[in-house]
Amino acid sequence: MANYLAQFQTIKNSCDHLIIAVEDVSDLWPIVKARFEERLPIKRACLNNKTRNPVYVEQLPAEFILTTDSRLRSRFPQEQSVFWFREPYATVVLVTCEDLDEFKTILKPRLKLIVQNDEREWFIVFVSKAHPSNDQATKLAKKIYAKLEVDFSSKKRERCCKLDIHGSEPSFWEDLDSKIVESIRNTLDRRIQFYEDEIRKFSEQRLMPVWNFCNFFILKESLAFMFEMAHLHEDSLREYDELDICYLETVNTTATKHREFGGVDHGDDQAALLKPGYKPLSQIVQDDSFREFEFRQYLFACQTKLLFKLNRSVEVASRGYSFVISFSKTLALHENTLSFCMREVWVITACLALINATISHYKDGIVAPDVEKEFYRLQGDLYSLSRIKFMRLAYLIGYGAHIERSPVNSAALSMLPWPKPAVWPLVPPDASSEVLAKEKMVFQANPRVKHFGIQRKPLPLEPSVLLREANRRRASLSAGNMFEMLDGRPGFTDGSGLDSSLRVSPLKGNVSSMSRTNSSPGNFETTVDRPMRLSEIQVADEHALHQTISDPDLWKSLSSLEGFEQKYLELTKGAADNYHRSWWKRHGVVLDGEIAAVCYKNGNYDLAAKSYEKVCALYAGEGWQDLLAEVLPNLAECQKILNDQAGYLSSCVRLLSLDKGLFLTKERQAFQSEVVRLAHSEMKHPVPLDVSSLITFSGNPGPPLELCDGDPGTLSVTVWSGFPDDITLDSLNLTLVTTSSVDEGVKAIKSSSTIILNPGRNNIILDLPPQKPGSYVLGVLTGQIGHLMFRSHSFSKGGPADSDDFMSYEKPTRPILKVFKPRALVDLAAAVSSALLMNEPQWIGLIVKPVNYSLKGAVLHVDTGPGLKIEESYGIEMERYTKVMQSAGDNGHAHDAGEGCSSVAEEFMQLTLTDGKVQLPDWASNINSVLWLPVRAVDDRLARGSSSVTPQTQSIVDGMRTIALKLEFGITHNQTFERTVAVHFTDPFHVSTRVADRCKDGTLLLQVILHSQVKATLTIYDAWLDLQGGFVHIGQGNGRPTSSFFPLVISPSSRAGILFGIRLGNLTTGGEADPDSILNIRYGISGDRTVGAHTLVAVENSESVGDKQNFLFRSALVLQRPVLDPCLAVGFLPLPSGGLRVGQLINMKWRIERLKDFEENADSCDNAEVLYEINANPENWMIAGRKRGHVSLSEKQGSRIIISIICVPLVAGYVRPPQLGLPNIDEANLSCNPAGPHLICVLPPALSSSFCIPA
């Protein structure tokens, strides 16, 4: 079966569609050919895949071929089983007949003979030539077609269809398509089953000696190709995947005998991943299998072709990258049999071929965004891989000095091993001029000197020294003398690069050295070849690469330095652009740095600076300071060349901000000198410079500074400087940000002098102006160095650091300042809550209580309210106040000092009141103290007593007086505290009276009760009563009590009684009589000012202790004549029994009767007329008649009179009736029996018939 490989390849190249055989029985094909071929390709064909699931093929290519065609007649029977996929998938039998006898005798037997082959899928197309106008011919054609259906169709399957040439039958073409598709589907199912059975048989023999992979491959690929012709690409791809796995298992089997790998022909260096027909299969067959190098590429090319047909370019890129990586490892295993650098060249061509193919087949917008990003990521990987291999080839031929020794290039090339040929290439005999040119190029290649004089060991671009590796792999030298290889130059270090190893003098002659072979360590050869110099190695490598590389474009890129730079830039840009469009944007940014190096070399500093900025931003964001230290000086150099002063300053600051171990001290000093130089120069466009990474700050350890609203202070701030030397700040500002409101709480603190920052930790004291209440954290540090404005947003941890260089960037920061709201910085309160004496000088105690705040230099403003004045003739006293608190930790206002507390005068001072202000002494600034003010409460009203009939109605507000206090304190008297203190003043007594007894002779015993209203002891020395008219004293008539108990002592809150004997007298008719009785009391007081009412100021200040000063208290008493013998009686007459209604007229009557004769009561009654008055609520009653008038009443005892009035009730319910009053008659002379009810019931008005509507 393996002999059919060439024929199999030919069949595959010539047959790419399905074949439909046409059996033209009646020579009809020339007539219907055009119309049949118009139906191709077949639309929406439903086929079965390998798992027998239906699959719709949008366009199924096919071709109609006559059975008499040579393409079907030239096949041998033994080929059919192998190449069954090219056999017809359906047979269309074209017949026509116009005679029924001819059908029975000739056509029918012939058709039976044609369709007797069960392996073919066939159906009959009957072509009717009858014209529609010929009814007889039309009927005969229908009859023959009916016979044809009966003979060749069945219930299970319709195998006949009719085509009318002269008519239009669209249903025929649909029927034709369905029958063709059905035949193809059945044939395809049968052939799939056949191939599966054959493949299963071969698979069972894999471990047997008779196993032949070529036979298995032909069957497997025949099945895959058949799927591909049927456009079942998924099934075809699956077959190739299984074939690839089976081949790898066959190759990796240990029992397999050694086979040739391949890849030794010219042109094999160019990858054939997309060229299935690059080499015929017959050329790569070896025994019972294929050469691995060509065959694996062939399988991948077949898979790629199917993936492109499925529009899966992303999968091509993914599979291609994985295949290149794995196949590159396979090439490494056979590198000693391949040409020099065959592996690197193949990888480059494979990556570039995959990139071009996938880009040309990829369509934007037809895949999901994530898939699109993955596609560009794979493109970037392919570009990056080819870029690395290309740099390796360039390094081998002497372009290493022109490759940027960046971290990414060093990481890639230093881990990439050298080529491992069996023998390293030798220098051609006529290449002496080329060797000299290489050495000249090495000497002319000046290494790039970094800005600021930064000295760095160049990063290596080689895994080991190329000089040693090449000489070690020479045929006659396994290990050379390193000293001889370097022409006796000491100091060479492995991996140091070109600077130390490439400068070999071409004039040096051969130096004898001792070499050692691999066979025996102890055997030394007698003839030893001279080790090659590096320039000779590069020339040898270039000649060997020229023999290996067959791609003219690739060789052109390596034949000159300009071509190398152009190709290198192309590959780098391709990788960077694709990485930027994927989600691996960081890879793209890193490669931008390589593009920037080329731009810098070519003098395009603007593009170089932009690319370097991207790279620096990436490294800084990731915290890769070692990498940042490599790139940032390059950015600074570009910015300096472009005269970008702002960017150059920022780069210098960022260089200073890196770890100190990355640069030498002199290098960091050079950075600082550049910053200072630019800061003091005239900048065209000065911009604020952010030094957050270089200068950080924090508050000092410990609790935050606490101030009160309006208080200034000093704030200590710790500033860390990352500069290597001292630096002078012309100004320094620090903002404070409140934690509650950013908009309202930003305050700036300015330094008043120049500040010099030392390297490391610095403590700075700033004057703090008054701030608003709130909690503040450090905001932004700004300042000026020369003409340069700088700012820093970084915060340092305020805890103790191990060294002065300690810097931290922890957030959130803790509060540095707390400004309290206007709180209880001080408290002013009255020392005594009990009442003081009215109209007498008294001490008012004011407790001054500082609350964790100093009152040094405080001034108290005193302003008394109405009814209160300060007795300026007496001095003001202040003493220390000690109070027993009710609970520990109580910081509230002062409590009453009268009960349960003690006060001790520890310090005492006389103060002076000047313009209403008192200067508080310094000793009272931090302690609780009491300020005593001499005041007098003035009240010109006469005190009035009460009785059981008229109880006491005095309000506490009547004796209330206020003192407005304003305390100014603080360092600059910026703090004020205002409070109005209320003080209660009262009379010493409250007087109440009652009649204790009435004697038979008309004498009344009047009891006067004295209630003490102060917390002091009162002593009564004398008391007398001045009576009003109508009352007289008994006895001597001097108004003294009936019995004398004076002096009478009354304790605080106690009562005492005094009896007076009085009797009724005649009312005076002429002159002005006193309306009230006056009680006069001469008393004395004994009390303590810390408790309440106390000894008067005059008494306390009296020089004579034995003098007694008595005071007079007067109170008005209201005495009423008792109702014992009234003159008149007033009665309310009953209302009608029918009830009252709203709107009804009512006659209300009152009766007045004289109880005594006129002679006995001449003083109290009128002689003939009585004044009356009716009082009624106008909302409830309407009065008809006079409301006020005089009526005549006889002066004789028993005389009567009736007063009537007509009224109308206005509202229903319980209302108060009108009331009768006698204004000129004293209430003591009236007797009500009763004068009227309190409430009466008024009914609603009756219904009115005028508003009723008859039914």
From TrEMBL:
GO biological process terms held by the UniProt record: early endosome to Golgi transport; intra-Golgi vesicle-mediated transport
Domain (TRAPPC10/Trs130 N-terminal): residue spans on this chain: 16-317
Keywords: Golgi apparatus, Transport
One cellular component (GO) term of this entry: TRAPPII protein complex
Domain TRAPPC10/Trs130 C-terminal: 1140-1220
InterPro entries: TPR-like_helical_dom_sf (IPR011990), TRAPPC10/Trs130 (IPR045126), TRAPPC10/Trs130_C (IPR022233), TRAPPC10/Trs130_N (IPR056913)
Location relative to the cell: Golgi apparatus
PANTHER family: EPILEPSY HOLOPROSENCEPHALY CANDIDATE 1/TMEM1, TRAFFICKING PROTEIN PARTICLE COMPLEX SUBUNIT 10
Name assigned to this protein: Trafficking protein particle complex II-specific subunit 130 homolog
Taxonomic source organism: Protea cynaroides
